[in-house]
Request: fold
Amino acid sequence: MKRALINVWIVLLIVGGCLLFQRNRPPNVMLVVLDAVRADALSSYGYERETTPFIDTLASKGLVYSRAYSPSSWTMPSHASIFTGQTPYEHGCHHVHAYLVDRHNTLAEALRDRGYVTAAFNANPVISKDNNLLQGFETIDEVWRTHDPSKLDYRGSEYTNEQVKAWIARTKEPWFVFINYMDAHNPYWPPVEYRNRYLRGDLGPIASLANINNMSVLSGKLKLAPGDYRQLRNLYDGSISYLDYIVSDLMSAVNKRTTLVIITSDHGEAFGEHGHFTHNSLLYRELLHVPLIFYGKNINEPMIDDGLVSIKDIYRAILEASPYNLSSGSPVMAFHYPSLTNRWINKHKSTGFSLIDGRMHYIAFQKELPEVYDDEGELINLCPSSISPLTVQKVINDQLRNIDAFVERDEDLKSDDSLQDEFRLAKLRTLGYSGGEVAPNISAHAEVHLNRGVAFARIGRFDLALKEMQKAQKIQPYNKRVNQVLLAIRNKVGK
Ligand SMILES: [Zn+2]
Reply:
């Protein structure tokens, strides 16, 4: 009897010890970026369509940031912000300087130094070893390189899940895994069941429009009717439903008692709200407002936080904060820097700055009248009728001065002359003092066909890709990029 009692005590001590050990050990961290998913496309963020029933259940048990914003409207600077905890103005990644310098202690490096095993499974070619964005990841699967796009699962998300599950099964804890899924990124072409979920009637000419990029719309070369935007949105919503399935499949491999899961996006997506389509251009709310959900270990009760947060603060949340209290009451900022190839389009050629403070959204593009909104859809510009442009400029300059102070304090940055030049240039552009003009190397017309060709190739339609690339080459026979893509597609189709 006595011996039995001792045995029970020993078992209780071991179980208790294990539980205590489990509670105190650092969580595994799974960071999931649903590329190009705007917040209001999720049913848990109020969308009338039930696009994301699975993610909604995570949200109902997790910590939901209802007002999370991206510091950029495109992938590269936005991921650099998540990985460094800095704005694009601070880390210096943008169209012209599309490279993350070594000086940063990235999230993956910091976690690796704390004993985490790190891995990245990434479907977006813009996040790559080539631009140094994947510093600190010990295992890297660039899904866009390794996955065969002619398979039904053309963005590779099902393949990604298989790889992630296998990696988790063989990896010692604690681990950190970053996953980027591209299914909601244009062109919107999910598996047929999801493609047809919200479509109304025949796709008709929209079939090719799904592959049109923002440039052709912004340049005025392509006019989209409201009905076209609705059909594109229907395809996009179907893509998001497919992503919801992908996330549910991924989560079957995750133990919520030992893992912190963060679900977010790098930027939103536009469907004609301000006359533009897709992303990577302007700085309206539909491009910046993204989902941000924390779920699993250390999230002890469901909560909705309505404070303003920037997704750059995911960095701080993972490394420093527990509980995850991200809203600081500070304004959130976003930046746009011009692209060399897109400068022919009005606002693409200028640098832009966005500041959301409370309900107010200030947007200033170089050589443009500033805009200020306090309405949800950002349709009524309060400037200059209620707010003077000078007031807007002052608000913006005050914020830039704060960032300057940060950059000044950064000793490593001071020693990096080339980067300092980038910062100086970026600042001058933001304040409207410098055009930074460089001759474009591709014509607008050829670029439309080049982008379509690449888009068709990505979904395995090499026949259509070849036609587009032949058109691009006819317009601009000696462009290096056009010829490279054409050659690659010719090799694929054997012509
Ligand atoms: Zn993106």
The chain has two domains: 27-327, 444-493. Residues 35-36, 75, 266-267 surround zinc ion (CB under 6 Å). The chain has a mean pLDDT of 82.
